[in-house]
Amino acid sequence: MSPLPNDSKMKLLDAALQVIRTKGYTATTVDDICAAAGLTKGSFFHHFKGKGELALEAVRHWNETTGGLFAGAPYQQVADPRARLLAYIDFRAQLLQGELPDFTCLLGTMVQETYVTHPAIRQACDEGIQGHADTVAQIAAQAKARYAPDAHWTPESLALYTQAALQGAFILAKAKGGPEVAAQCVAHLKRYVECLLGTTPAKPVSKRRAH
User: Fold this and answer.
1) Banded model confidence at residue 6, pLDDT cuts 50, 70, 90
2) What is the DSSP string of 89-148?
3) Is residue 182 within 8 Å of 96, Cβ to Cβ?
4) DSSP 3-state assignment of 195?
5) Could you tell me which of 54, 45, 47, 173 has the C-alpha nearest to residue 124?
6) What is the mean pLDDT of residues 22-29?
7) Which of 7, 109, 103, 4 is nearest to 59 (CA)?
């Protein structure tokens, strides 16, 4: 029984996530995607006009898949915002499992190759990274309000810094050929956030009663 059209499209998108993270966007061919999906080029061109259109759809697929993963992650149930932010970083460390294509980021991989040559892909990757950073910024804002309300850094800048540290960790993992260095980087990220937020909630400013 042949796969339904939506099934074949999903197979191609899932294959794209793996192959592009393995070979990079430029080196990946339509034949590579079809071979990984176990489908023909006729099926590919039934769903996509070319590799560029597939890449944009793959970004959306990646955002939906990872968005669901993080939305259901255990750290979301942690009540204290400082502990929740640190648990988010712990969760990122736990994801550093398997082969490099299993845990590195599709968006970071593609944007490094396409930021000049494919503006639409660059923008899609930027929006995906920013969108995830925005969810982290919400937690950081709550943690800052409780633990470091007078600090000069912003939740938005800290959220983007977490993404920069993680993307850099992925690059180092590729350079070193394994996740160990990435785990060390994420551990340093956690220590940095711990320093920013301290350990004791800020005391509320008392209001004097007017006489």
Assistant:
1) confident
2) HHHHHHT--SSHHHHS-HHHHHHHHHTTT-HHHHHHHHHHHHHHHHHHHHHHHHHHHHH-
3) yes
4) helix
5) 54
6) 97
7) 109
Q: With beta carbons less than 8 A apart as the criterion, state whether 203 and 153 touch.
A: no
Residue among 157, 166, 148 nearest 91 (CA): 166
What average pLDDT does the chain have? 94
Q: At residue 208, what are phi and psi to the nearest 5 degrees?
A: -75, 140
Angstrom distance (rounded) from CA 209 to CA 71: 44
Note whether 125 and 113 are within 8 A (CB): no
DSSP 8-state class, residue 40: -
Cα separation of 55 and 120, whole Å?
A: 10
Helix (H) or strand (E) holding 36, with range, is: helix 30-37
What lies within 8 Å, CB to CB, of 187 at 6+ separation is: 93
Query: Tell me, what's the pLDDT at 3?
Result: 43
Count of Cβ atoms closer than 10 Å to residue 53 Cβ: 12
